[in-house]
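agent> fetching stored inputs for the (S)-3-Hydroxyhexanoyl-CoA docking request
agent> found them:
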Amino acid sequence: MTVSIARHGEIATVTIDNPPVNALGQALRRGLWDAVAELDADPAVRAVVLLCAGRTFIAGADVSEFGKPPVEPHLPDLVDRIEGAAKPWIAAIHGSALGGGFEVAMGCRFRVADEAASVGLPEVNLGIVPGASGTVRTPRLAGVAAAVELVTTGRPAKAARALAIGLVDAVVSGDLRTEALAFARQALTRPLPLPVSQRAIAPVDAAFWAEQETAVARRSRGAAAPLRALACVRMAAEASFAEALAHERATFLELRGSEQAAALRHVFFAERAALRPAHLKEVAALPLRRAGVVGGGTMGAGIAAALRDAGLPVVLIERDAGAVARGLANLQAIFDGGVRRGKLTEDQAKARMAGVSATTDYAALADTDLVVEAVFEEIGVKRAVFAELGRACRPDAVLATNTSYLDPRLIAEGLPNPGRFIGLHFFSPANVMKLLEIIPTPDTTPETLATGFALGRALGKIPVQAGICEGFIGNRILKRYRAAAEALVRQGVAIAEIDAAARDYGFAMGPFEAQDLGGLDIAFLQREGARAAGQQVPETLGDILVRAGRKGQKTGGGWYDYAPGQRRPQPSAEVTELLAGQRLSAVAPMKRAAIASQLVGEMAAEGDAILDQGIARQGSDIDLVEIHGYGFPRWRGGPMFATRNRQAP
Ligand code: 3H9
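agent> prediction call returned; pasting tokens
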């Protein structure tokens, strides 16, 4: 039974039980519709408490219904029906009341939330706007500014904030059902507040909308939904409830059928599938209670910070006392940054540091469940580390390398119990970037692989399995992308025009300005290493620049020039001269859309090769790698989705 009714004296409870997240599919909407009728007709009932079973309140409309024609009862009608019920309904919220779930809660006369609950309207993350009065009722509850923030960012508000801004009427600790029933009894002793739809919206000054439009457009970088959501709130503030509702519904239906919404739905389901891959369903992960990190540089410190953020005690190993001190200072700097940005309190930062013990002695790793190696990218150095780990760690401890380019099989050679070895490729800064490439070797056991995914989940990452090849999934595609960008330069397309095309497409930065920021020398050294090892690696345009001392912003110039202390790229006469001999005769000027299409097409072509070789398990994994590791615009769905769906860039 999806919806069940119980009576507690003059209060009824309506309990929704629709696992996993009580999404508002058609059967549930019908069940609630009928519950209103049944309770309206029962003279013994004076108020109704709406509860959910399971881990959360209603998490929203059922996203899997979005590709299909809407079926009655429609959600906006259901929200109106609950609001118009003869008895007041009280939403009792635990977990998350999101999207349609929060819209149902706003149809209720009161909202009572558990102290760990959150409420929000995340529809923009799916490329849509709320479609059942979210943009129209929220400003009536919490004011225009709060409504704009909620609907344009999609970020939920935690219970305490929701109470402070008026989204909920009470926050309770203890048993939610008991507390909500007590709230309902109290509420019946006082006059009822107006239904939300009848409340007034406090006016805002004219400049507000212009400021918000600029700010939202800047933030959303090509994503359509946030600006459309803003327009809906504006309509709510300036027109009648009914007009605003009709405008919101029309916008919702239009966007629901858009390419952006299809792309974002693809990402939504891909992300959830990535966390629990089907092939590991039956495999139990090993327990993760204590972790070790070898190497306290930028990468190692970032990994240690990520582990601490997830609550794991960390042993940090470095090779000498100076390096131990530098590693600790790197970690301290990360947590200090968290405090400066308001993400951590001073006390939390102290607790994060207190959970780290740093030493040169590998024996300190004796009782760790997992150790991640993040030392210099050189095979001999890494093998020496694993020889130590093989001696110091428990035989069942998972041992991971964070290599980005080396063959993990070579790193693991000679390691006792090679089944517990795995590649865990983090992206810098490792405590921030969501992507985690997981690279099993032929020896890695399913339990070790499952533990890699469990770690990814614990750290709040998007884990993606990759096979062994140079650069795994992400860096291999990056190489092709950069080569494609260089090929355009050789054809005579201006460097700045290529970067602008990538930005227009939705990337934060183009391929050349990104290299200038990160430094051209890392990839150069790697190519030089391969050349020294006898591999045929053709000379790139980047090589020419590095040989001329242009390594990027840090040397005052790379693909562009930079004025001292400035980060704004300026076209460079020196680069034009250095590359003059490399350009073919000028081609017809290319439109930016065609440039972007070519770049993304090359990424997808590499993705196809990666799939053919079994390096990635599915196209959606490649999309996740690009979105979470390389700044591919989420609302395009990733290179594989964008190319397959022939989106016009
Ligand atoms: C909306 O409401 C539009 C309305 O304004 C207007 C309509 C007219 N639908 O994330 P999890 C599945 S738009 C269908 O791992 P958690 C998910 O795929 C909606 N399925 O759990 C997964 O399936 P599986 C606005 C959904 O505990 C399973 O549930 N709402 C939906 O880590 C568990 O999910 C949102 O955007 C859904 N709406 O986190 C909320 N949601 O097990 C989206 C989840 O087969 N959801 N599933 O892989 C969330 O943010 C999280 O699921 C939540 C729980 C925080 C609730």
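agent> quick read of the result: Residues 20-21, 23, 55-56, 59-64, 75, 96, 98-100, 103, 122-123, 126, 130-132, 134, 272 surround (S)-3-Hydroxyhexanoyl-CoA (CB under 6 Å).
agent> awaiting further instructions
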